[in-house]
Amino acid sequence: MRMHYHIQPFRFAVLLILSGLAGCQEIYEPELEVTREHLVVEGVITDQSGPHAVYLSYTGKYGEARHRRPANRATVVISDSDGRETPLHEHWNGQYLTPQGFSAEVGKSYTLHIMLSNGEEYRSSPQKVKPPVRLSNVEAEVGSDFQYFESGVSDRLYQREFIGKHVYVETETEKGKPSLFRFNTRLLLQYTASVDLGPINPPAIEYCWEYRDVTNLVGRDISRPESNRIRTAFIPRQPEYMQYYNFPSRRYATPRVVVMELFALNPESHLFYREKYNQLSDEGHIFDPIAAQLPSNIECVSDPDNQAFGLFEASSVSKRGFRVIMNYREGSADILPWMEVENISDQGCLLEEKPPFWIGK
């Protein structure tokens, strides 16, 4: 009982202090300029043969319907560190293309110049093209992945676990530091189908494939500045589970091929994509990063107070393919290089003819 009398005054004091702190709070209403439209730049050039695209648009006004309003009739030029200038032409509303065959060169820096139809002038900071990312190791590990589905009887989501292989890549370090890059991952699956050619002819065989982007299923598409190892793909164990991973429901054969595009980034571009990932992965937890405006490498030359948004990126690209042969009994996987990484359509079938990239007899 004696302890009870000591605790009560303490609780009262704590409540009194918290009440006082709450009473000192003031509502801060920032003054925001919500009527002015700002330029948004989305442009990527690589060391691969072009054309490459730069998209120009304007931010929407606060409270209006969201839609992309293109910036038409602009003069867009890319200059390199050797002083050469490459003009772009407007192919579609707000889409400006480099000449056919244009490609950036590793080691050179490129600057984007924009003159809008209203006379406003913009310029990016010089973007140096880094050497291609080099892989030191590729491996796969048995693990789980979770997918969420809508319930058929309520408005809630339910979760389902799938067993499969996580694919990891390790990159060579650059001056003792992990390589900076972003990546796209595609998964190639193949299957056969029997085609009835009538009562006289025997059935024919179609050799078919599905080739789809699975980057968003990984969750993160940007390297970690503190590590040179990152997960780039997940492959479910059962072929019938592929319907839950953006693939049509089919009886896919065992061969599974992962094709990765690695875009080497300079620190400025890597910071942009890293901050973008942090905001998209924020779930509102107390220790999540505070949402802030993404960094931009675009400035308004004619009016320094006029803020611009977006990124002009110059990168080298390395494209690598790997065949993943999974052994769940031993909990291991063989990773074999796969060279047929070009000119594959998203899907297709050939009658009585195997495509050049077909695996198996």
What this model shows, in words?
The chain is mainly beta and 361 residues long. The protein folds into two domains: 39-129, Immunoglobulin-like (Sandwich), CATH 2.60.40; 135-266 and 317-351, no CATH class. It contains three helices and 20 strands. The protein has helices at 2-23, 215-218, 267-280; strands at residues 39-46, 53-58, 69-70, 75-80, 85-92, 95-97, 109-115, 121-124, 127-128, 135-150, 157-171, 181-195, 204-213, 229-236, 256-264, 298-300, 309-315, 317-327, 332-338, 347-351.
Which key terms come to mind for this protein?
361 residues, mainly beta, Immunoglobulin-like, 2 domains, eleven-stranded mixed beta sheet, six-stranded antiparallel beta sheet, 20 strands, disordered N terminus
Shape: globular
The secondary structure category is mainly beta
List unreliable stretches of 5+ residues: 1-7
Mean pLDDT: 86
Order of helices and strands: HEEEEEEEEEEEEEHEEHEEEEE
What's a concise summary of this model?
With 361 residues, the protein is mainly beta. The chain is built from three helices and 20 strands. The strands form three sheets. Strands 1, 2, 3, 4, 5, 6, 7, 8, 9, 16 and 17 form an eleven-stranded mixed beta sheet that branches. Strands 19-18-15-12-13-20 form a six-stranded antiparallel beta sheet, with no helix packed on it.
